[in-house]
From TrEMBL:
This is Uncharacterized protein.
Amino acid sequence: MLKIPGFGNTQPLAGITATSRLMTDELKKYLLEQCRQWMLPEEIRALSRGGLTEHGEKTTREIAEKEKKETLTDFKIERMYGFNDPKTNELVNLGHEKMLSTIAQRLLERQGDSIVNKCTKCNKLTRTPNAKQCRHCGHDWH
């Protein structure tokens, strides 16, 4: 008989790792917003590319041509968005939601519980990895 995680049991479901069971939308958002320092460079570039539009890239290149700074602008765009980086392209090609989940899952598996800061009283996520007060119940552990 299968047990549902989070409902009074501690046995894992077959084929599901502990970290994949724990990934919620709140945890994913926390990891992507608060744990950037543990991300790989290609993950940061892939996230940056999510906000870039074709119009924005075209406009940037047009301004550079007018100012004769094409090489510098190309360098900056490549460094920031990684269009020629195969690892970045691989992440972007997954699609936005799958890319976000993949990055968050890797962070959780690689860094473990050391980056997930939970309240010692209510066990909910804090606002940041260094927070010492719960935003949910107000518990303070300074």
